[in-house]
Amino acid sequence: MKKMIYLDNASTTPVRREVIEVMMSFWSINFGNPSSITKIGVLAKQEIEKARTVIATYLSRLPKEIIFTSGGTESNNLAIFGVVKSLANKGIKISNMHFISTNIEHSSITECFNELEKQGATVDYLKVKETGIIDSRDLRKMIKPNTVLISIGYANNEIGTIQPIREISKEVRYARKTNKIIIDKNEEEMGLYPYFHTDASQAGLYLNLNINELGVDLMTLDAQKIYGPKGVGILFKKTNVKFSPIILGGGQEGGLRSGTENVPLIAGQAKAFELVRKSFERNAQKIKIIRDYFWQKIQKEIPEAILNGDLENRLPNNLNISIPGINSEFTVLCLDEEGIVCSTKSACNHDEDSSFVVRALGRDNVLAKSSLRFTLSENINKKNIDYVVSKLKNVIKKQLKQNFN
Fold it and tell me: Of 104, 125, 217, 229, whose CB has the highest number of CB atoms within 10 Å?
């Protein structure tokens, strides 16, 4: 069997050995229910609070603002519907609520807004430029007096482009000064809306996550994207954000996310987060060198390849290209046979035959159907890249020859 060259880290990452070691005892030795008052239960609860503190420290926020979930999808759903439910409980009709997002968000965001639109809400979508990045000045024009939530991803899961989160947060703060939503007669609740949520699932490895600098109210993180376990994630929620739970039960996670906490995964997530945040800037610089070498090599060997999204304002490990005339899924399978793992688009959009993100850049359907996503890790070197480009070139030649014949 060929040695695997894994270039699909945007989809999921391998779990680090140190993370596995941390999790082991909580499955077989310290396996108590954290809601129990017994010694073993108290130990489990202490581990959860320790993990909460570790993560909060790296976000420069309070431990009580960290909510543990089952992953990025649940965190995104909780952020959106938690705000909606809170307003609905106070008598605001969903049909009177306005939301803003972009036209390249992850499906766990877009499907939530699709559902709210079915219930009568109004949702406007900012269009990205050809670079895959929005203009924050366009946001000011779109905000309405009844805008309650703005959800814009930090870094796109397909093309890796990074949105100007700080500039967006400034526009949100400006909008609050003229906000006219009346919740009740409690003046303390005035001026809070719209809230600003960002899905930072793809940002955890390489970007700044200091909440105070970013200026967000809600932020999603996913452990499986940072060399942690699958099935666990985080929703950061500022203390002053008005919020209602969407999962009811035992009142865990401060009453905002019921269900017995998964202690092993939470402990593993905290360890993964700790390992990543200690060296994220150094790793970003290192991997960007390899990524740029990859693109230069492709330009030389496969000149028909087109880059999707801005080259500089993107995650340092992301390279998304379109190659006219190829079948991207067939190409992925051929590369897989050569020990190379990559993807066509988000693994969560399996029902689509082309990338809606690439189409949003102004590309036609031919390019949207021929897109390939390569997302590197720190252990990929130039020798690996040379091998990948060589095999990719061969696969493309065979396809184009068959198409011509």
Answer: 104
For 77, 262, 278, the CA distances from 257, given in Å and listed in that order, are 12, 12, 29
pLDDT at 186 over 60: no
Task: Retrieve residue 198's tokens.
Answer: 């960002």
Q: Which of 112, 334, 342, 348 is catalytic?
A: 348
| Strands, sheet with 371-375, edge to edge from the N-terminal-most edge strand | 306-307, 318-322, 371-375
Per residue in 45-85, pLDDT tens?
A: 999 999 999 999 999 999 999 999 999 999 999 999 999 99
Q: Taking the model in full, what pTM does it have?
A: 0.94
Sign of CA dihedral 51, 57, 62, 68: negative
What lies within 8 Å, CB to CB, of 201 at 6+ separation is 72, 106, 157, 220, 221, 222, 225, 233
From 27-31, 312-316, 318-322, the region with the lowest mean pLDDT = 27-31
Tokens of residue 29, six digits: 């030795």
Domains, in order of start, for the chain = 5-13+280-404 (3.90.1150.10), 17-278 (3.40.640.10)
How far apart CA 308 and CA 372 sit, in angstroms, is 10
Q: Which residues of 169-206 are buried (b: 16+ CB within 10 A; e: fewer)?
A: bebbeebbeebebebeeeeeeeebbbbbbbbbbbbbbb
pLDDT tens digits for 108-141?
Answer: 999 999 999 999 999 999 999 999 999 999 999 9
As beta bridge partners, residue 162 has 155
Helix (H) or strand (E) holding 363: none
- The pairing of strands 340-341 and 5-6 is parallel
The yes-or-no verdict on residue 348 having pLDDT over 80 is no
Residues 6+ apart with CB under 8 A from 316: 206, 284, 285, 287, 288, 291
pLDDT in tens, 142-175: 999 999 999 999 999 999 999 999 999 999 998 8
CA distances for 57 relative to 235, 263, 273, angstroms = 15, 19, 11
Q: How many CB atoms lie within 10 A of CB 370?
A: 26
155 closest CA partner among 99, 220, 218 = 220
pLDDT at position 214 over 80: yes
Q: Which residues pair with 125 in a beta bridge?
A: 101
What does the chain come to in residues?
Answer: 405
